[in-house]
């Protein structure tokens, strides 16, 4: 194992998973650790680098863009490197998403292996070098063992989701997987997990076919993470105490979230895979708390009829809305450009539709009064951070499980639809309920309370601050 020396800073090689919901917390983690004196080598794939570069405003486009140059100017020691993901740069990853995911399992590991090997060979301070890789990767044990590095796994979703994936074998033994078809079936076999029903399980494991590439990613990743030395979770202990404490019986883990708070205290670092539209002028023209922000994140898709019902529901509600409608988000043969233009016209100035926006800036704006979200974990943490209550419409994966936390456990959001089908009337009713001060008073009070938990966690002596210290102690101990 690499040795720690007091005279050499801890050096993390950080290898991110190439999806937006992973890039954001990973970037924030790099900034957080660098601000605590770590040296960071931050690795993106060349493809991600290309997307981030293209997403820059016209005047700053530069192939040599180093996303951490501003952070370095403020004294942070972060080196930025790009490597291949195993596919040619011109390969269409959107069109061939399965092949892309396969390549991350089968081809990317040897690229990482070679990269880490070369880095270690050329790095004279290697004695304090260690690895931080996203839990979604399937290769960290192999690479860290080969180069004798402490292996830290970083989990970007709630600990609840982690523990469910981590106990897939137990869930199989207890007959929950494959799914038997009863959404009300209660799961009680996972340590620390209470009141969990199959309907709130991650969508991938509600399928009857468990042999797709997505299942392969989870099976392999969770075989691998069981052998990690340390785990970092982007959550807070007070949210998921029993689960985290059950997990820590098996492996040392540290809840150090919410990492979205890091965005506020540091220079801007480019991380967006799409160009961000500036919505500030439009928002400035709106009354405080009067705009509903709508986004379904970076990956999930909407069926065309759901898109139409949500759009019509927004119009019917007569509320103001800002919708970040990512290109390709709607599964449709039709060109939706004209639909979007019509939606914008029909809203008579009440609606603004953009492809992508700086979400934290939007959520922090005083004009925003609610968030219609797909329940991505980053979006939830950001919404709580800015004290914005939510309407939840989960679409896939962990979003179903995250919804339970927001609506059933913390009571800071409502469901978009109480049944299987989304109707424009129900959308309008829920939007009005969330946006009306009177009917959402309870939600707003709750979100203030939950936000306080986040504030306390990152305050001096708060749980996340203390957990970072414990992480550093354990890391050094692992190196001795
Ligand atoms: N995001 C953004 N602009 C948008 C939509 C999303 O910057 O128009 C960011 C958002 O702030 C969040 C991330 O993209 O940090 C999405 O992550 P999340 O976990 O919420 O969902 P995912 O995209 O992984 O489904």
TrEMBL record:
PROSITE patterns: UDPGT
PANTHER family assigned to the protein according to its UniProt record, in alphabetical order: GLUCOSYL/GLUCURONOSYL TRANSFERASES, UDP-GLYCOSYLTRANSFERASE 85A1-RELATED
InterPro entries: UDP_glucos_trans, UDP_glycos_trans_CS
The enzyme's E.C. designation: 2.4.1.-
Protein name (record): Glycosyltransferase
EC class: transferase
Keyword Transferase in record: yes
GO molecular function: quercetin 3-O-glucosyltransferase activity; quercetin 7-O-glucosyltransferase activity
The UniProt record lists the keyword Transferase: yes
SUPFAM superfamilies associated with the record: UDP-Glycosyltransferase/glycogen phosphorylase
Entry keywords, A to Z: Glycosyltransferase, Transferase
Family stated for the protein in its record: Belongs to the UDP-glycosyltransferase family.
Coiled coil region boundaries: none
